[in-house]
Amino acid sequence: MASTQASKRPEPAGRGAISFWRHRGARNIAIQAVFLVAVVAVIAYFYNNMIRGLNELGLTFGYRFLGLEAGFAISEGIAYQPSDSYARALLVGIVNTVKVTLAGIVAASLIGLVVGVASLSSNWLVRSLARVYVEVFRNVPLLLQLLFWYSAVILKLPPVRQSVEVFRSFFLNQRGLYLPRLIAGQGFSSWLWFAGLALVAGVAVYFGVRRRLKRLDRPGFPSLWALGTTLLIAALGWFLVPHPPLDVDPPVLQRFNFTGGMHLSPEFAAILLGLSVYTGAFIAEVVRGGIQAVDRGQSEAALALGLRPWAVMYLVVLPQALRVIVPPVTSQYLNLAKNSSLAVAIGYPELFNVGTTIMNQTGQTLPVFTLIMACYLSLSLITSAFMNWYNRKMRLDER
Amino acid sequence: MNVSQSDDIIICEDVHKWFGDFHVLKGISVRIGRGEKVVICGPSGSGKSTFIRTLNRLEHHQRGRIIVDGIELTDDLKNIEAIRRETGMVFQQFNLFPHLTVLQNITLGPIWVRKMKKSEAAELAMSLLERVGIPEQAHKYPSQLSGGQQQRVAIARALAMQPKIMLFDEPTSALDPEMIKEVLDVMRELAQSGITMLVVTHEMGFAREVADRILFFDQGQIVEEAPPHEFFAAPKHERTKLFLSQILHH
Ligand SMILES: Nc1ncnc2c1ncn2[C@@H]1O[C@H](COP(=O)(O)OP(=O)(O)OP(=O)(O)O)[C@@H](O)[C@H]1O
Ligand SMILES: [Mg+2]
Predict the structure, then answer these.
(1) B115 CB near a chain A CB, below 8 Å?
(2) Do B113 and A306 touch (CB under 8 A)?
């Protein structure tokens, strides 16, 4: 037995008094508190400065101006007149931003997927074209590309009377793209019955197939069966209804312009083209990297088991590639949303464009700025929340 | 060997393969009997891996014929699938699917290729895991296992397809020495079962004990083939002697 009086061992951690500045938890709390105080102080300082500045100009900080009449025109978007309020004008901008962002995300994803897979093709020409595409569009500034699409391509299209036409129903000219629109026809209401039936049948098939698979104790694709059933019944209804349920409303050339159909403005076309071509190049790289990250041994092992190529892709390669692909693609989507503000350079009336106009007219720089920032922030947060949800769901599904 | 023709489960006639300009397999002709255990050895780069990979079409040969269990390997996808269902393969790097559990790794083939019920496939998988000695690992992911355990799962995965032929490409080369034995033990046990085995390996002890015949590859050709006692006691070819002296006095 060792003598107790000779013991000089230090106190074990967590017992006895540790001096305050050596305690890990206490130190962390102290650092955070100091940081918080500093941040609040800085904000207070700037806020004070701002209020003083506004007072000198005879202005006050507030959002009441949003109710005032805007008084300026917006070239496209949801219903709006110059006599509407600033708030309404801002809403037009928001909707336009969301519209171009969503369309851009879809188009960029498609481009990215196709080009990414193509850059791994065994065909030399296909592979090289994909590489050139990626290198060109990834390395030229987006602003330059937007101006190029707008002024060098779209505005150089022929005038209205000499439109480029495809199938006598798509018309491309300096004023943008005119295309046919589908509208409810005479048979629409009777066809709706079929559509309803199709939906009900789809749901029934989904649960039926799921139960059957459960009984058979086999994996399968109930949602594909459901989708097939729904489409089949809806299509059947199309032929059985005496009058066509949907009519085509084509654009028709009048004296000076087209009427009917759908119209995409040159500004929208340019920004959509620019954003999706640019972001598509980045997504293509992500897709290529994701597929390459899956070792070749994985598909060899799956093939050796006798799995068909689609099953190798679906069961083995894709689940592993998606893990690598989804997070960086999310940040590409966020970039796309934020880059849509560059549309101000070609006059597409999105959020930033409308916002700066309001700023200039009212002088309310700060309130408008905070509003714009809040809008982009919410748009980004919603996008990443959705992608995170998808990512989590995908990982859980694998288990 | 004097096996009658119908007993040969693998027949290769003058098989050639090129990688670009590089002639990897230069006329391989060999017959392997049903239930025979064949060990393939030879220096690095001699085409051993390439050869056994042509047997289930992970590589395709450009000249000659390969007939596996009466089915000729051609570009006919149906034949390729049929042959792959008959042959299991075990790789040097295990190639387990990292996103699936051990159990799911093993049941994937039976469920999707053999169209087995999930519960039956799981039962089969559990019995195979018993056989390779790691039933308690069924619900772990491959990355949580040791190398030796991973390779045993890979063997179980291949066996789950109930193949007639098992191909092994250096199954112990990526393992630490203390794990080699546990994998070789499983392979020895498997050899008792009457399945046809082709094993590329440098484990000469295993070859001596288990093989019916040893094929010695050099520069894309089978230079020598003999039963183990003959192969080790009286190698005929100079290159075989050199190889054996290098590998045995190592
Ligand atoms: N995909 C390929 N493309 C080009 N050359 C290849 C390819 N695969 C293998 N080779 C070459 O073919 C030759 C034979 O390779 P193989 O892998 O069959 O040799 P091995 O006998 O298995 O050697 P080791 O003992 O090193 O595994 C080597 O020279 C290798 O470099
Ligand atoms: Mg090899």
Answers:
(1) yes
(2) yes
> Is the per-residue pLDDT at A367 higher than 90?
no
| E strand or H helix at A41 | helix A24-56
Rounded to whole angstroms, the Cα distance separating A136 from A150 reads 18
A187 contacts A242 by C-beta, under 8 angstroms:
yes
Nearest C-alpha neighbor of A284 from the set A100, A120, A103:
A120
List the beta strands (DSSP E) in chain A: 164-166, 170-173, 176-179, 181-184, 246-249, 252-253, 258-259, 262-264
Dihedral angle of Cα B59, B60, B62, B63, to the nearest 10 degrees:
100
Sole residue written with tokens 């489960």: B9
Structure confidence by residue, pLDDT tens digits, B148-177: 999 999 999 999 999 999 999 999 999 999
Residue A330: name the closest of A399, A396, A394 by CA.
A394
- Cβ contact B157–A305 (<8 Å): yes
The conformation of residue A34, written as its DSSP 8-state character, comes to: H
**Alpha-helix residue ranges (DSSP H) falling in B144-202:** 147-159, 177-191
User: Per residue in B174-202, pLDDT tens?
Assistant: 999 999 999 999 999 999 998 999 999 99
pLDDT tens-place string over residues A24-42: 888 888 888 999 999 999 9
ipTM of the complex: 0.94
* A-interface mutation test, from B53, B56, B68, B97, most A Cβ less than 10 A away: B97
Distances (CA, A) of A246 to A185, A228, A261: 4, 21, 14
Reduced 3-state DSSP string for B44-55: CCCCHHHHHHHC
- Give me the count of residues in chain B: 250
pLDDT tens-place string over residues A176-190: 888 888 888 788 888
Cβ contact, residue pair A295, B96, below 8 Å: no
Picking from B225, B50, B131, the residue whose alpha carbon sits closest to that of residue B211 is B225
CA distance from start to end of chain B = 31
Q: How far is CA A106 from CA A110, A350, B102, B182, in A?
A: 6, 18, 37, 52
Which residues, 6+ apart, have CB-to-CB distance to B210 below 8 Å? Answer: B37, B39, B187, B188, B191, B197, B199
Chain A residue closest to B106 (CA)? Answer: A305
- The band of A3, judged by pLDDT with boundaries at 50, 70 and 90, is very low
pLDDT of residue A173: 84
Residue A364 to residues A53, A59, A83, A357, A370, Cα–Cα distance (Å): 12, 8, 19, 11, 10
CA A200-A204-A207 angle, 5° bins: 145
Question: Of B95, B111, B119, which has the smallest distance from its Cβ to A301's Cβ?
Answer: B95
Report the chain B residue with the minimal C-alpha distance to residue A399: B100
CA atoms lying within 13 Å on the CB side of residue B73: 28
